[in-house]
Amino acid sequence: MDYEIKTQGKFNYIEEGEGEPLVMLHGLFGALSNFRDLLDHFKLSNKVVIPMLPLFDLNILETTVSGLAKYVHKFIEARGYQNVHLLGNSLGGHVALVYLLKHPEAPVSSLTLTGSSGLFENGMGETYPKRGDYEYIRKKTELTFYDPAMATKELVDEVFEIVGNRLKVIKIIALAKSAIRHNLGEELSDLKIPTLLVWGQNDTITPPMVGEEFHKLIPNSELHFIDKCGHAPMMEVPGEFNKILHAFLDKLKK
To answer: Are 22 and 48 in contact (CB under 8 A)?
Structure first.
């Protein structure tokens, strides 16, 4: 990704464009590159912000969904953002939800969840990932997508490098277990801001029924399914994803 990574204190992030901040949170095996197409599209209308979540940098006791939510809270506070549109994929969605539920006063105008954990997920982290087995990691990475060709060598290499590091694997498992334990259920009815749910019809990690359950529990929400799409719609079908998000953000301006 050819964008400058900026630093403020302990925070590393990308910030491009002008306008209301659109803050994007990546998932457990995610990276800044997951949002490349969204960044290129929305930097023309918004200030697009992608913080690098410290998945492997927190101490083990803080390596939890709540620990990451605290980090996001401090980041948004430190940057002084207002009228934030918060977007999270997978674990990033779960982090966004915990942050908003703990900080109802947060300067957030809308929420977008795509393939979010928080209710139910089939993760890679529930068992110790096989270190050194590249083929296993490749197949697991392919499961993220409807089209296995989306699991490029570059992407598989990134995941392979993470699971080849014992300390990183311990933290991945800690986060995955924290996500499973931290089920949000009925708390979601407290969420009042406009919420967009975008789900892949072929998501096997947080299946379509999870999107439906979020829709049922979050009062002011709308749900969109994208066919022939897995767990990361913003990567697999960015054109369609951007169109849905653009229409949602436009509606909020009226």
So the answer is: yes
